[in-house]
Amino acid sequence: MYRITHLFIRAFEKALHILHKWDERFGGRTFRAERHRKLVIRSAECHSMTGDADEAYYRDQYWFWMEKYFRENHVSPVGSFLDLGCGQGRFSSLIAEHYVRSGGKVVGVDISPEAIRVAEAYKEEKNLSSTEYRVDDLVPFLKQSKDNSFDAVLFIEVAFFLPGWESVTKEILRVLKPGGLLCASFRSRYFSLLYSIACGKWSDVPVILEKKEGVLWNTDIHFVWGSNDETKQFLEETGFDVLGVMGIGNCSGIEGDPLAPVARPSGLDEEETKLLMKSELAVAESVPDAGRYMFYVAKKK
Ligand SMILES: C[S@@+](CC[C@H](N)C(=O)[O-])C[C@H]1O[C@@H](n2cnc3c(N)ncnc32)[C@H](O)[C@@H]1O
Predict the structure, then answer these.
(1) Among 136, 149, 216, 261, which residue has the least CB neighbours within 10 Å?
(2) Whose CA is nearest to atom 14 of ligand 1?
(3) Mean pLDDT in each 10-residue stretch from start to end of the chain (301 residues)?
(4) 127: left (phi > 0), else alpha (psi -120 to 50), else beta?
(5) To test the ligand 1 pocket, which listed residue (41, 55, 65, 111) has its Cβ within 8 A of the most ligand atoms?
(6) What are the structural domains, with CATH classification, of the chain?
């Protein structure tokens, strides 16, 4: 009896030790994968990336760069595009409507059934036969995808709350054709700090300064952040040639963002919106980590 109790206590201590290490690795709070997943799915249901006027403005900003790099790198309009964490199809539908020609295809994958329902409804409405949507976790989806099968992979505004984003990026490299393009956005350390300071969430500041991922802002969501140098180095070491890094939203933000008091695109008139876009595009490459996201376009070596 004594031995069984002893073994039980040892096992319990070991579990606590593992949890403690996990806690250290993922910031000040314990990371709970299932809770994180539920919150991510809920966030996709609560915030429409296609219905929100600010998000529509940022879509156009991303598209300015994406289309430029697609054309400069001769990404085939009859090729295969993969949109990982496609949400409501903000970019899948844009590519289908403005880039892909007959014979090309766009595959959008998202873990949120509600987001995919919205994407499917838009596909029906506009008769976008080149798009195909799947409700799936992008990690197993990628694992099942063949080597060298896509001309371009989009990974936009997903890595910032994706545990294991580094191995996902390696899988993206594998599924891209040689010379294929990755279009990915990441959160900067600077933005995460600005957010914490603006909200008075000072206890998160040391975690953001010292680490690159963790549970922040009392949310139970696992966030990821980094400097431009760190992210660029990671992509280069993984096997990409980074062609460009641009800041998205360097002078503005959506509701709740630290830069929203500077400007919210949805609150501007047409002329002001054009001037904001002109300003943000003009400074995007000189301060890539000052905005809402750092946007990377990188080529598989
Ligand atoms: C901020 S939204 C961005 C959506 C889209 N990329 C865009 O820019 O409009 C993040 C999306 O990533 C999805 N997501 C997060 N983790 C995922 C995972 N493991 N597998 C598939 N989708 C995921 C969420 O459901 C959400 O729709």
Answers:
(1) 261
(2) 85
(3) 46 43 50 86 86 94 98 97 98 97 97 96 96 98 98 97 96 98 98 96 97 92 96 98 98 96 97 98 98 98 95
(4) left
(5) 111
(6) 26-300 (3.40.50.150)
